[in-house]
Design brief:
The protein has four helices and no strands. By secondary structure, the protein is mainly alpha-helical.
């Protein structure tokens, strides 16, 4: 079973928290809040998204790439997928 299914509840809690943060940012911008408050909200959202990414990535690495029974070819393919996602994420 994929780790995103096993940890579904916890991941959804994180996503809903991020959704709330982005809605608060939208409201803040709409109301003309100070730049420092907007920047702080953006930083909080970025931190929350990074935390979500880390949690899913760690689960993927542990559940898939660290699996002893995984054939080498499959492990290499999974590794390339992770590297591709990380390159895209870190641009």
């Amino acid at each position: 079973m994929p780790h995103t299914v096993k940890g579904k509840t916890q991941l959804l809690v994180r996503v809903r928290r991020i959704k709330g943060q982005t809605e608060a940012l939208e409201k803040s911008l709409d109301q003309g809040s100070e730049c420092s408050a907007v920047l702080q909200q953006i930083a909080a959202i970025r931190g929350a998204v990074n935390g979500l990414m880390l949690e899913v990535l760690e689960g993927h690495l542990r559940d898939h790439l660290a699996e002893p029974a995984l054939p080498d070819a499959q492990r290499q393919e999974d590794l390339e997928q992770v590297v591709s996602v990380l390159r895209s994420y870190l641009k």
